UniProtKB/TrEMBL annotation:
This is Thymidylate kinase. It comes from the Bacteria. One of its GO terms (molecular function) is ATP binding. CDD domains: TMPK. Keywords: ATP-binding, Kinase, Nucleotide biosynthesis, Nucleotide-binding, Transferase. It comes from Thiomonas bhubaneswarensis. ATP binds at G17, I18, D19, G20, A21, G22, K23, S24.
Length: 215
């Protein structure tokens, strides 16, 4: 059982980082390390993870809207996700690996777009009282590096078209959150090779799992 969330048997892991940090590249390795340890794993994402959540995701990624609307839709999608996927999985004993969670709303809508943190924190208390990931992996890269990677690869969605300044604010907010809860966060230097990033995440998760299973 977890020291942080002592009421449930599943480990909750989320991955965070600015767009282009290398999150998608590392997701499967996170799942693999847990499965190799004999755990059952549910891989999911935000915004999304449920039928309603995926519809909200489509709106969010492609329609322009006020940052407050954006934040409220993120939490609407999250409410469905927590109630239908995350909590039942954790309570049933499965680990949940989530591509982004509430830290992303604090960083993007809060740090990046100026929605007041206390409003976002109030929504978080409403939508998932007492529930936070046990481990939050932040893949940290300077926005210039992320932009260069994205330019070389894919069509950008609405969020990925934001400026380097925007991503600098998002990154700074993530780093502040991590500094405030060092026991929960792992900050990995994402400018290293994918193999090096994977090695650091794997080692950390193995230790976190040992601690979790010994409680
Ligand atoms: N450590 C790394 N070093 C160099 N390039 C990377 C690294 N990790 C990912 N990439 C590349 O950067 C781009 C964005 O990675 P991706 O995993 O899709 O990022 P995210 O999911 O965080 O937006 C992809 O082309 C990917 O191959
Ligand atoms: C969960 C979440 C995501 N986002 C943004 C970050 C991403 O740009 C976008 C989609 O997330 P994601 O699917 O993680 O993007 P990618 O894998 O392409 O990096 O939504 C927020 O702005 N706030 C949030 O709360």
């Amino acid at each position: 059982m977890s020291a942080l969330n002592p009421y449930r048997p599943g480990l909750f892991v989320s991955l965070e980082g600015i767009d282009g940090a290398g999150k998608s590249t590392q997701l499967q390795a996170v799942v693999d390390v847990l499965r190799a340890a004999g755990r059952q794993v549910v891989l999911t994402r935000e915004p999304g993870g449920t039928e309603i959540g995926e519809k909200i995701r489509e709106l969010l990624l492609h329609q322009s809207m006020h940052p407050a609307t954006e934040a409220l839709l993120m939490f609407a999608a999250r409410q469905e996700h927590v109630l239908r996927v995350i909590e039942p999985s954790l309570l049933g004993g499965a680990d949940v690996v989530c591509d982004r969670f509430t830290a992303a709303t604090l960083a993007y809508q809060g740090g990046g777009k100026g929605v007041p943190a206390e409003r976002l924190e109030a929504l978080a208390r409403w939508v998932h009282p007492g529930l936070l990931p046990d481990v939050i992996v932040l893949i940290d890269v300077p926005p210039e590096v992320a932009a260069q990677r994205l330019a070389q690869t894919r069509q950008r969605d609405r969020f990925e078209q934001e400026s380097v300044d925007f991503f600098a604010r998002v990154r700074a907010n993530y780093l502040q959150q991590a500094a405030a809860s060092p026991d929960r966060w792992l900050v990995v230097d994402g400018t290293q090779s994918p193999e090096a990033v994977q090695g650091i995440i794997t080692q950390h998760l193995k230790k976190a799992l040992q601690l979790f299973e010994s409680k």
